[in-house]
Structure formats: structure tokens, C-alpha cells
Amino acid sequence: MDEGNQQQQQQCPDNTMTPQPEEQDEEGHNEDNTSEIYNTVTSEVHHFSKEEDLDTERGAMSETAGANPVQDVISPAEEERKEIEDEEFECLLGANGEVVLWSSKWETVLSRFDFVWPDQLKVPAAGQETPVSAPVPDSDGDLQVTRKKDLGTREGCVLIEHQNATTLDLVGEQVWRGAIFLADFLLNHPHILTDTHVLELASGVGLTSIVSAMIAKKVTVTDVDRGDILDLIHRNIKRNPELIKADVEVKEIDFYNHTTIDDLADRMKDVSVILVADVIYHNQLTDAFFSTVLRLMSEPPEKTMYVAMEKRYVFTLEDMESVAPCYEYFLQKLDWLCCQNLSRVDWTVEQNSTNFKHYFTYERTRHLVLWKIKAKLK
Question: Does the predicted TM-score (pTM) go above 0.85?
């Protein structure tokens, strides 16, 4: 697939092209699968996996970083189960030369997201510094040299099972750049989550929630019960036990289903932080999302919400230029939110700086944005 088509697939649904009806055979079947092409969206996030370090069961500390995890006693039955699960993934070569683990059973891939532990989260100890090793080539064939500034760092990784491409209604099964960006922000500002109950709305495969669980006291992970999203979240939580310090629960939320929202509201008596990443890609969904936010943030205790997203541009004949219509609509809904429940809530909305340190390895584009919304109850 060329770059132009890939960019077209990621646009706001209101601006996607609709293919013309295909000619059908005598049985009424389309002669090709053009409609499937237009209905498929693909994240631009690329995942660099290391075959020798990938463990389909566990994430957390990278062995190359000098980790020495405690070896638990495993029963023969448990060991056999793990071997069977390991065999469900086979090594494939990714688009950028990286090794990717593919599961034919789940039709998913298993990717490794490497990060550097922030100083304020790690406890320095002997034997945990990054060892000096011989230079190794990266995916482009260039040598990666251990530099002085990298000595003494402590590396970790999050293992995430996900889809590489899905239909639009299952985009939550992919990993989007906004989730890594928000996770990076949290590692830069861990005090935001310290001793808190965190709620992530529309968490997808759970990457940001797992990072939050490294810091927070409790994390509630939510998404719509569609496809394999909730099952993926459960499996990814089980894969990263060394990282997770918080109590974690997975709940369904459907922005169009008030029953799920009411049930979630009853469990939010002590939630003070709400996280959202790349949930804005359709105007009707944006409306339902903000209605949910209004309901949840108008109830005690006072809450602060962080919304990360990547602006997606399209060229329209109406404007004769590239615009980001879904993001523009998001800004309109921010204005709408600030006018709601004013007798009960003082709203504070600000756009946060994106100039913070990289802890994860990814491309931080200029289209990534981060908003902070605080509800002060009267």
C-alpha cells in the first residue's frame, strides 16, 4: 500500500471516500474486495521487536538492561500451558526489518514497546545499570553505539498484543500514537498519578493503562465490548505483571449506552484522574464522548482529564486546503463543555506543552496534542 492510500485510510469517517458499487456476478457477489480496502484503517505506529528478548507471557524489565527477575517455581502443567501459548506465536519480519510475533489463532501480533525508566520511578541498585555491549545494527543497518549518557540507565518494555489493521469499528484493537504519547507524558509527570484511582476511557489494547498502573494506586480500564478489545486488554495485563503495581480492573463502557455509563459512575467514587487517547475520529462519537465526560466529571470528587490525540488532516475541495475536521469539531465540543453545569462546576481547559522527554521510542510528530480539562466543583 502506498503512502497516499495509507493516509487516506486514517481520515475522519465524515471525509473518507466511498467506493462506487462493484459489478456483481450471477450469484450477487462482488468481483473484487475494493470495499474492504476502503473500510480498513491502519495505524502508522511501527513496532520494533527483538526476537531474543520477546517473551509472550511477560513484559517489564529488558534482559539487556541487566534485569534479574525472580524465577517463580512453575508446575509442569503451567509450563506446558506456557509452551503451548508460546507456540501460538510465530516470528515474522516486519515492514521495517523488525521481528514481529504473529498469532494465527488470534490473528494478532505481539509487539515490544521499549522505554527508559524515569529517575523518579527507579530505585538504583547494583547490577541494574545498562552494560556496555558491542555495537549492534538497527533496522536500517546503522550501528547503535552505547554512549556515555546511556550508561546507568534502566530499560524496560511493555508487551502488547494488538491488531495491525482493522475495520473502522475495531480501531481500538490497534496501537495508536496518541496512546504512546500519553504514556510518555505520564512517565514525565508521575506525580499526577501517585496514590490516585485512574480511569482510562476507550483504552484500546491497554498500553496507557498499563503504564498508569506502574504509578497509580488503582486503575480502571474501559472500552466498548466489541470484537476482542476487552479480551486483548485482559491478556495484555497478564503479560506485564512486573510493571503493574496498582489494582487493575477492566470494565465495559459504551458512550451510546447509558447503562454502562451509570454502572461506571457508581464505581468512580474516588476517581480523580481520567485519561483518554486518540478517541476522536468521528463527530457522532465525539458528541457521545463529551456527554459521557460531562456526566462523569460533574460528580464528586473533583477530577482532571488528560486527552491526547494526533490531528489527522484531509484535503477538501470545499476548503481547497488540508484541514483536520475531527479535531476542529473536538475544539467546538470543548467550548460546549465549558458552558455546561456552570452552577455546579468551574471548568478549566488548557493545552499542555508537548516538549517533554522521550522515554518511549516512537516518532513524536507535530500533530500530537495534549489537553488538560479540570472540573472544580462548587
Answer: no
